[in-house]
Amino acid sequence: MYESVSISMVSAASAAAAFFATYYTFYASQKPQVFASSLKLRNFLDEHVQLLKERYWPSPLYAGGHLQTILGLSQRVTSPNKLPYRREIFTLSDGGEVALDYMEIEQKSERPLMVLFLPGLTSSSHTSYVRTLVQTINKSGASVVVFNNRGNGGVPFKTPKTYSASYIGDLEEVIAHLKQKYPETRFVGLGTSLGGMVLAKYLVTKPLEAKNNFECALLLCIAWDCVQGSENLEKPFINKYLINKELARGLRRLAKKFIDKFPDVSLKFDPKLALSAKTVREFDSAVTAPQFGFPNVLEYYKSATTSGHVHKLSIPVFALSAEDDPMCPGHLLPREEAVAENSKLALITTARGGHLGYLEGFGKSSTHYMERLVGQLVEGIRVYGGAELTDLSNGHL
């Protein structure tokens, strides 16, 4: 009897292992897809980003998008834990302050390359994935400056104003400052999550300025459709009660610092609603929308949406998104816009990866798939971008 039970258990375990191996090999692990109408963009990626010719093998321990998203921070480590940034406190025209954290390297080129990095929702230059990407960019031969939003990165609020996914005023001032400070430097914009949404908003609303200021841009895991992305983030169970709830917790911490500094903030929004928000939508309804003059949260989300505006891009844009990203799942990605005539977007999609996850292997590391892809992109842009991407910026595909 015991022998037959043991045989049954072994058979069940073997069947489960075979099922997982089949699923992992044929469904979870796939070669990335590239959606781009521009032959120049496709050739650039084919020549300089070898990673796109290989399968992405997500970590077998957490292959799904939810686990990739939840563990994306904890599975990234850098040494040293605190990078030796050179900090500049930049005062904005309204008296607010943001922190610009530089990691510069020596470059022999007459026109060195610097990446302006806009982190996600409540991230800063100290967040793990920001540190790993900064180190990767440095190793690829470019300097980095991380733009920490108001109230983030250890910088206190100086004015009764925060930031949003559709407000580009602070970014415009930072860009002007950097261009004046480094007149001979080539710039690439890089944005992750909300930072990428702000950068995308700038690129489609200020195309002439973007062409003058950036050689190209990189957008990682952005919500192309903020309206439907928010709806997807509210679906039970994991999206709403784990991921969304954790994002809201970070926003409440930010709001508390803001309210403690400006107790009369009730003139702009209700502090009680801000500190009791359980989801990102509740927080944006209570704080972000009214603060930035929107009649409701839906109008704010419409304003923060880039889908439908991709044709306005004036410079080459490389974007990375996963099909299983809970904040922007596969059906919301702008594939058709990327392959439309004269599009300057190269959209790279993977079957797995989650939101800023892209974890590989079985343990913590400073280099996962996202870092490796950004490293190859930045190196290609640094060495060949001026020659191979300039025509694209001038409208020639």
UniProtKB/TrEMBL annotation:
<dbReference type="InterPro" id="IPR000073">
    <property type="entry name" value="AB_hydrolase_1"/>
</dbReference>
<keyword id="KW-1133">Transmembrane helix</keyword>
<feature type="active site" description="Charge relay system">
    <location>
        <position position="193"/>
    </location>
</feature>
<dbReference type="GO" id="GO:0008126">
    <property type="term" value="F:acetylesterase activity"/>
</dbReference>
<comment type="similarity">
    <text>Belongs to the AB hydrolase superfamily. AB hydrolase 4 family.</text>
</comment>
<dbReference type="InterPro" id="IPR012020">
    <property type="entry name" value="ABHD4"/>
</dbReference>
<keyword id="KW-0812">Transmembrane</keyword>
<keyword id="KW-0472">Membrane</keyword>
<protein>
    <submittedName>
        <fullName>Phospholipase ABHD3</fullName>
    </submittedName>
</protein>
<dbReference type="Pfam" id="PF00561">
    <property type="entry name" value="Abhydrolase_1"/>
</dbReference>
<feature type="active site" description="Charge relay system">
    <location>
        <position position="325"/>
    </location>
</feature>
<dbReference type="GO" id="GO:0047372">
    <property type="term" value="F:monoacylglycerol lipase activity"/>
</dbReference>
<dbReference type="GO" id="GO:0051793">
    <property type="term" value="P:medium-chain fatty acid catabolic process"/>
</dbReference>
<feature type="transmembrane region" description="Helical">
    <location>
        <begin position="6"/>
        <end position="26"/>
    </location>
</feature>
<feature type="domain" description="AB hydrolase-1">
    <location>
        <begin position="115"/>
        <end position="361"/>
    </location>
</feature>
<dbReference type="InterPro" id="IPR050960">
    <property type="entry name" value="AB_hydrolase_4_sf"/>
</dbReference>
<dbReference type="GO" id="GO:0051792">
    <property type="term" value="P:medium-chain fatty acid biosynthetic process"/>
</dbReference>
<dbReference type="InterPro" id="IPR029058">
    <property type="entry name" value="AB_hydrolase_fold"/>
</dbReference>
<feature type="active site" description="Charge relay system">
    <location>
        <position position="355"/>
    </location>
</feature>
